[in-house]
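Researcher: We're teaching a course module on how sequence relates to structure. For the next exercise, students receive a sequence and then see the predicted structure as tokens, so they can try to spot secondary structure elements on their own. Here is the exercise chain.
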Amino acid sequence: MCDPVNGTCLYGCKAGYKSDRCNESEQKKKKKKKKKKKKKKKKKKKKKKKKKKKKKKKKKKKKKKKKKKKKKKKKKKKKKKKEEEEEEEEKKEEEGGGGGEGGGRRRRRGEKKKKKKKKKKKKKKKKKKKKKKKKKKKKKKKKKKKKKKKKRKSNI
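Model: And here is the predicted structure for the students to work with:
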């Protein structure tokens, strides 16, 4: 089974081994150590991979946060600009007072349409109200007529 002088051993004993019989437990220990080393290496690799993934995720999160911040800043800037524009327009309106060449407020794109739509809606509402009033009046008149007819009949 084990001949260390000639180097023939099932467990891989080297030539010149102290005992003429192979120390099985030592070999088992060696095997265990090797297995442990392999496991450790695997664990290390896994840890490294995990760390890399975490780093990537963190980077992505940071990028997203930066993008969000930029968007927020842009929105704030836009809002401020709009407010300033409105203030300026109000000032102009107070000074200009309509008519003339530069008088009155400068309408932004799409504002005219909106105003027109609003006016139309108002007109429609007014018309509806008028119609309702007319209908009510008509109903009242009809009722009065009916009452008169009834009275006349009872007199006969």
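Model: If you want an answer key for the exercise: The chain has a mean pLDDT of 75. The CA atoms of residues 54 and 60 lie 10 Å apart.
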